[in-house]
Design brief:
By secondary structure, the chain is an alpha/beta fold. It folds into 2 domains: 2-152, 2-Layer Sandwich (VC0802-like); 174-213 and 249-370, Rossmann fold, CATH 3.40.50. It has helices at 12-22, 40-49, 68-76, 104-123, 174-183, 201-210, 233-245, 261-274, 311-328, 341-345, and strands at residues 2-6, 25-30, 33-37, 55-64, 90-97, 136-143, 146-152, 192-194, 254-258, 280-284, 297-301, 332-338, 353-359, 362-370. The strands form 2 sheets. Strands 2-3-1-4-7-6-5 form a 7-stranded mixed sheet. It has a 7-stranded mixed sheet with strand order 10-9-8-11-12-14-13, covered by helices on one side. Strand 13 and strand 14 (362-370) form a beta hairpin. Helix 5 packs across helix 6 (201-210). The longest helix has 20 residues, at 104-123. Mean pLDDT is 94; it is low at 374-382. Bound molecules: S-adenosylmethionine. S-adenosylmethionine is lined by residues 171-172, 195-196, 198-199, 201-202, 257-260, 263, 286-287, 302-304.
């Protein structure tokens, strides 16, 4: 069976590696997505374990149509009862890049009408629509006259790990955070530090990677694949048991800092709730006083981007980050993500690697600074 895992811009290669590790076959890189082949067990495992996937689609029906009538007819002629029954609630999302169809909502509406009419004709009862929390989520992708209808196996986005309820806060997306850690080569074998940890996303994702805790271990949302006709609970239970046997929290060392006491309190509450106190230690401390206890380690930092600061202030803030790294963190790898490209220049170090990632809609640079030991002035760059 073919599947398509969606991800964030720039994380496709990381997702490919994760899929290889799970044993996926025929892996192909797409734009913000990766296609792969596997069986039902792999699909469940991918939903449970992938850290950099947002959702996983199962394409089930390809056809061409150039008018509403043709679209309705093609959808009506497919046997939807193969996948789900009329007691399930459904929702349809669509993405349309076509000269034949210009309203994606209209495509979704026509698709819904044809599915609902088919069930009503055959069984006398139609499935209800639930756009918020449907049992069955269908995705219609249109490119010119080519349609692909997929079942969304995940339902609610896989970034919703379930380990904390941030309500109104805007932490880093968990998928982005995990992607940044994996891109930095983090496996849990060395000290990890986020000295501007805020609500702790990097700390929690790091702990889960290091201790082999599956990405969805704390997930509260059900997956849509559980509502498909072919769902096999025993397979999913087996996957969970196997993955949970591999959890090992020994030797994991993660440090967090932030100068905002309420962020520290909030993060500490989650650490306590999850019982992560043996892996993560946090402290209320400004970065320039947050000196390393170890000679080497990995740092990932998501500093303020300066929306609320004057230009001078944000420039000197980024210069302070550079100075602190230079003066105290030789031996470390420091990775910084920021949408403030001008401010990043004031760090005053040449990155040894850089790439573009998106924090929500903000285009960001994600840069690595290799801080060589014993070379305070000239060899920070590689
Ligand atoms: C963009 S937020 C980080 C959000 C975090 N990645 C998360 O997922 O919640 C930046 C954080 O840097 C902290 N911060 C700002 N200046 C700091 C400083 N001088 N020292 C330490 N932390 C600082 C802020 O309090 C804020 O929590």
């Amino acid at each position: 069976m073919k599947f398509v895992a969606k991800t964030l811009h720039g994380l496709e290669d990381i997702l490919i590696q994760e899929l290889k590790d799970l044993g996926a076959k025929e892996i192909n890189k797409l734009k913000r997505a990766v296609s792969f082949e596997g069986d039902k067990e792999l699909l469940y495992r991918a939903n449970y374990e992938l850290r950099t996937a947002i959702r996983i689609l199962k394409p089930i029906y390809n056809f061409t149509a150039r008018s509403e009538r043709q679209l309705y007819h093609k959808i009506f002629s497919y046997n939807w009862a193969m996948h789900f029954d009329n007691k399930k609630t459904i929702a349809i999302s669509s993405s349309v890049y076509s000269d034949f169809f210009n309203h994606s909502q209209y495509v979704a509406l026509k698709t819904k009408d044809a599915i609902v009419d088919q069930f009503r004709n055959k069984t006398g009862k139609r499935p209800d629509i639930d756009t918020r929390n449907p049992d069955i989520w269908l995705n219609v992708h249109v490119y010119e006259d080519e349609f692909t209808v997929s079942l969304d196996s995940s339902g609610n986005s896989l970034h919703r790990r379930g380990y904390r309820d941030m309500g109104h806060m805007a932490p880093l997306n968990e998928v982005l955070s995990a992607g940044m850690l994996l891109m930095a080569g983090y496996k849990g074998h060395r000290l990890f530090k986020d000295p501007m940890c805020g609500t702790g996303t990097n700390l929690f994702e790091a702990a889960m990677i290091a201790a082999n805790i599956p990405a969805a271990y704390y997930r509260k949302d059900k997956y849509c694949f559980m509502n498909w006709n072919d769902y096999e609970e025993s397979i999913f239970e087996k996957i969970k048991v196997e993955a949970e046997k591999k959890i090992n929290r020994e030797g994991v060392k993660i440090e967090g800092g932030d100068n905002n006491p309420s962020s520290i309190n909030m993060t500490q509450d989650v650490i306590d709730e999850l019982g992560f106190g043996d892996m993560i230690e946090i402290e209320k401390i400004p970065f320039k006083r947050n000196l390393p206890e170890s000679e080497m380690g990995l740092m990932i930092m998501n500093p303020p981007y300066g929306e609320r600061l004057k230009t001078n202030d944000i420039e000197s803030f980024y210069a302070m980050i550079g100075d602190t790294l230079k003066n105290h963190y030789s031996g470390w790898s420091a990775w910084i993500i920021s949408s403030n490209f001008d401010a990043l220049k004031h760090i005053g170090l040449r990155p040894s690697f850089k790439t573009i990632l998106f924090n929500g809609s903000l285009e960001c640079k994600y840069q690595k600074f290799s801080m060589y030991q014993g070379s305070k002035k000239s060899k920070y760059n590689s």
